[in-house]
Write a structure and sequence with these properties.
5-stranded mixed beta sheet; 247 residues; alpha/beta; Purple Acid Phosphatase, chain A, domain 2; globular
Length: 247
C-alpha cells in the first residue's frame, strides 16, 4: 500500500518506537501496556521492527500475528522497505543491520523461506505509508511535514521513510539528518506527530512532534507513547545488540 490510512480509535492506543529485532523487549513492552491500560489497547508501530537485533524474524512474525488478530498495525519504514526489495530480488546493499535479517532468513529451509516470503510480502502490501488517528494524531516512520498530511506522492514517501537529510553523509556512512520538527509552526489544533527513525536517548518532544526511537537495539530502551494520556512507557534493553560502527 502506498496510501495513508485514516483510523478512528475509540479505545486506548499506544505507539511503539523502532524495535529493530529486539523481540523480548518488544513483547515485554506490549504486555506491560496491555496489563496497565487494558487488553484491548491497540498498538501502532512506527516501523523498523527488523535489522540490527538478534531476533528479527521472530519480531516480524509476532507483528504479523498481532496484525492478523486486529490488535496491531505498523507503518511503512525504510528497513522493512529494503528487506522487501531484497526478498523480491532487487539489488540492495546488505548492510547497516540488514545482513542479520538476511542471515536469519537464509538459515531457514527452502520451503520455509518460500512460505515466509509470501507471508511477508502479503503483509507489506497491507501496510500504510502513514496513519492519521482520530484526525489529531499522525504516525509516520521518520515524520511528516504538515503540508504533506493527506498526500502520498514520491516526495511525501521519501520524507516519511527517510526524514529530512542534507544529501551529505557522515563518517560512519549514515546520511546527515536535519531536525524537521524545528520547522513546524504549531497551534493548539496542530496534530501530534509521532515518529521513529532518528535515535534519541530520551523521547524528543518539540513542536507537538514526538521522536520515540530510543535506541533499544543500541542498548538503551524501547519506548511507547500513549497520545490520549500523554504518557510514556519504557522497557530497558537486555543488552547492546548493535553498534553504528557495524555496517
Amino acid at each position: 500500500m502506498n496510501d495513508f490510512l485514516k483510523l478512528n480509535i475509540d479505545r486506548q492506543f499506544a505507539v511503539i518506537g523502532d524495535s529493530h529485532g529486539c523481540y523480548y523487549e518488544f513483547k515485554e513492552l506490549l504486555e506491560k501496556i496491555w496489563e496497565n491500560y487494558g487488553k484491548d489497547t491497540f498498538i501502532i508501530s512506527v516501523g523498523d521492527n527488523i535489522d540490527r537485533g538478534d531476533y528479527n524474524l521472530d519480531t516480524l512474525s509476532y507483528c504479523i500475528e498481532l496484525f492478523e488478530k486486529g490488535k496491531f498495525i505498523e507503518v511503512q519504514s525504510n528497513h522493512m522497505d529494503k528487506f522487501v526489495r531484497w526478498l523480491k530480488g532487487n539489488k540492495v546493499k546488505v548492510s547497516y543491520g540488514l545482513q542479520k535479517t538476511v542471515e536469519e532468513f537464509q538459515s531457514l529451509s527452502v520451503s520455509l523461506q518460500e512460505k515466509l516470503k509470501e507471508k511477508i510480502l502479503n503483509y507489506w502490501e497491507k501496510l500504510p505509508l502513514y496513519i492519521i488517528v482520530n484526525g489529531d494524531t499522525i504516525v509516520a516512520h521518520a515524520g511528516i511535514k504538515d503540508e504533506y498530511i493527506g498526500k502520498k506522492d514520491k516526495k511525501v514517501r521519501s520524507f516519511v521513510l527517510y526524514g529530512a537529510t542534507t544529501g551529505r553523509f557522515l563518517e560512519n556512512g549514515f546520511p546527515e539528518r536535519l531536525d524537521w520538527t524545528k520547522w513546524r509552526k504549531v497551534n493548539e489544533k496542530s496534530p501530534k506527530i509521532i515518529y521513529g527513525h532518528q535515535v534519541f536517548e530520551e523521547p524528543y518532544i518539540n513542536n507537538r512532534a514526538y521522536g520515540i526511537d530510543t535506541g533499544c537495539v543500541l542498548g538503551n530502551k524501547l519506548t511507547a507513547y500513549l497520545p490520549k494520556l500523554d504518557k510514556f512507557e519504557f522497557v530497558k534493553a537486555k543488552k547492546q545488540y548493535y553498534s553504528f560502527e557495524e555496517k
